[in-house]
Amino acid sequence: MQETKVNQMRKQVDHIYRSESRRVFATLIRLLGDFDLAEEAMHEAFAVAAEKWPGEGMPANPRTWLVSVGRFKAIDAIRRRTRFDVSLAELGQRLDSSGIEVKDDENVEDDRLRLIFTCCHPALPQDAQIALTLREVCGLKTEAIASAFLVAPPTLAQRIVRAKAKIRDARIPYQVPSRTDLPERLDTVLQVIYLVFNEGYAASSGASLTRADLSGEAIRLGRLVMALLPEPEVMGLLALMLLQESRRNARTTSTGDLILLEDQDRSLWNPAQISEGRALVQQALASQRIGAYTLQGAIAAVHAEAPSTAATDWAQIVALYTLLGQIEHSPIIDLNRAVAVAMRDGPAAGLRLIDAILADGNLANYHLAHAARADLCRRLEKTADAEASYQRALALVKQEPERRFLERRLRELG
Amino acid sequence: MKFICLGYFDETQWDRLSKTEQTALMEECFAYDDELRRGGHFIGGEALQCFRNAATIRYRNGKVTVTDGPYAETKEQLGGILLLEARDLNHAIQLMSQHPGVRSGPFEIRPADEEINALVADREKSLQQN
């Protein structure tokens, strides 16, 4: 009897750890002003919980209890260390005299936003922003992040240590940016989330094309930011990720080969993710504050709504790419628009645009520009031109599945 | 907290401006420096002569060698430094983002190393006592 009760409580502590540990951690960083101290204190608090809750029962508000215990544990630890390190004495005194009573208030959610904005501070290098966000906000282990990004664990650990040192030494404050800075700072956060998503969706190198765990983590992060800060572009990004993710099962064969959108079995698309993504796009568009992620989400939504490539509203897609090109000048957007124009007006019209883009020189080393050109030449039965462009694309491609796809296309030219 | 702001600018672009344009730009910068002074944020600053007047010394093979020009060959050169008092990095970024000088070239904002500064201050004090 006693045994089962203890087991039940252990399960409950585990559950609280999964649901609350990141919140407790975020608040402890604010109270203690130090990432490492906060992490240590958070683990100590859970250790005390595992020891005490089975006998004394779970407190009414476990999160407040954990923050409070963590804070006292940290003060204890500082006192002990003060004997060896004079610089900590000041911190110990400050914490002691501040006498903050830990209350369960809205501050807790603010603390999570503070943590996100601090990890994604533009003064930190982008690879460190990504590593720090996955480590501190998502709670992933250093080894897991390292293997997902194909770097050695010590390299990634060093990235995190350096970033934390910079936060401390250059005094990057633990705060949500002011209203004037918010759009730009939010953009940095969204960029980190989208990079994580893309790393999971199309690995930048290596043999495996999809790493679902990272994409799932990015969507979780998107949902978290959405809950804390429901800005239109957050909705747009979350929609874009959900709509791309909805095609995961259709975009590769069982052997890992790439299947183009036009050849995908659309019954394999995830309807729940599509309807959630579409609703978010509508909500973001209705805000009238339309940004680049929302437009990309809208394009993905048009594809998701179409029963086939032929029945896709290409005019709508061309219009959305035109708008996107106005917000964000990029030759890659021009390339995508050219492909959509080819679907709307025929391959000859698309080819004229792509040749103009390639003539500008910006995408001369981008394999997909040559692959797109090859495809239009193939459709126009310009076999020699198609072959030359496939060869050019093959010389530039880095991913194994994409290489196999291009080789197959080249062979099919005959 | 003390931040040192290193102001860079492209001297060839500066030279293309007329004398009146140059004076107007400087006046704008001085006016903002005054605003920083009023807020207690301006600790000090130094303007630098042309990078062509610089000498770079380097320790190599057991002796010091002298070369002309600045250490780094870039389009933008260090033009001046400003010592800024700010609460934290975000505050420093916010204060310097409004400085008219940022329109002529980038600012690098670096926290002062107070540990080493404290050592220097100790030396100075002990010299004065002796």
From TrEMBL, chain A:
InterPro entries: DUF6596, RNA_pol_sigma70_r2, RNA_pol_sigma70_r4_t2, RNA_pol_sigma_r2, RNA_pol_sigma_r3/r4-like, WH-like_DNA-bd_sf. It comes from Vasconcelosia minhoensis LEGE 07310. Residues 116-167 form the RNA polymerase sigma factor 70 region 4 type domain. One of its GO terms (biological process) is DNA-templated transcription initiation. It comes from the Bacteria. Residues 185-284 form the DUF6596 domain. Gene3D superfamilies: 1.10.1740.10, Winged helix-like DNA-binding domain superfamily/Winged helix DNA-binding domain. One of its GO terms (molecular function) is DNA binding. Residues 16-83 form the RNA polymerase sigma-70 region domain. PANTHER family: BLL6612 PROTEIN, BLL6612 PROTEIN-RELATED. This is RNA polymerase sigma factor.
UniProtKB/TrEMBL annotation, chain B:
This is YciI family protein. The lineage of its organism: Bacteria, Bacillati, Cyanobacteriota, Cyanophyceae, Nodosilineales. InterPro entries: Dimeric_a/b-barrel, YCII. It comes from Vasconcelosia minhoensis LEGE 07310. It comes from the Bacteria. Residues 1-111 form the YCII-related domain. Gene3D superfamilies: Dimeric alpha+beta barrel. Belongs to the YciI family.
